[in-house]
């Protein structure tokens, strides 16, 4: 009888060990699938985080572009425009916009600034609106991954032209 109990006990031990080995193999497979799932989730989360950071940089660029257009419009509305200083006024406004954009680490060029009406072609009448627009291309880091090369960021500011501040005319 002891032999029967001993062989049954051995059989249970062997079956228990076989079951343990099978469960260990399954847990290893499960661990591998967990790592793969974790990797996929991390990639999606990282793409989301990079996209949010890139969007934040684009918004920061917009703030700088808006401030630069405001600075140009403020200068344009205050400085006098005469037949003898029209080109100098045009250049001073564009330089002020580019300088303000540069203070925010944005490289704006002369052709990125649009003045309306352009003082180089004629002076606006007192009380008329003047408009300064700055357009730049934001090189999106995340956009390159999804097929978007550049994003156009544009800001325009209008102010009423007075042209009576001769203290900053530079003449």
Fold and architecture overview:
- The protein has 171 residues and is α+β, with helices and mostly antiparallel strands.
- Helix content is 58%, strand content 15%.
- It has three helices and three strands.
- Strands 1-2-3 form a three-stranded antiparallel beta sheet.
- α1 packs antiparallel against α2.
- The radius of gyration is 35 Å and the shape is rod-shaped.
- The mean pLDDT is 85.
Write out key terms for the chains shown.
58% helix, three-stranded antiparallel sheet, single chain, 171 residues
Number of strands: 3
Q: What string gives the helices and strands in order?
A: HHEEHE
Percentage beta strand: 15-25%
Total of DSSP H or I helical runs spanning 4+ residues: 3
Spatial strand sequence of the major β-sheet? 1-2-3
Shape: rod-shaped
- Unreliable runs: none
Summing up helix and strand content along with how strands pair, one would put the structural category as alpha+beta
User: What is the mean pLDDT?
Assistant: 85
Give me the Rg, rounded.
Answer: 35 Å
Question: Ends: how far apart?
Answer: 121 Å
Helix fraction by DSSP (H/I, runs of at least 4)? 55-70%
Largest sheet: 3 strands, antiparallel
Task: Give the topology, please.
Layout: H1 2-78, H2 86-103, E1 113-116, E2 129-139, H3 143-146, E3 150-160
Antiparallel strand pairs: 1-2, 2-3
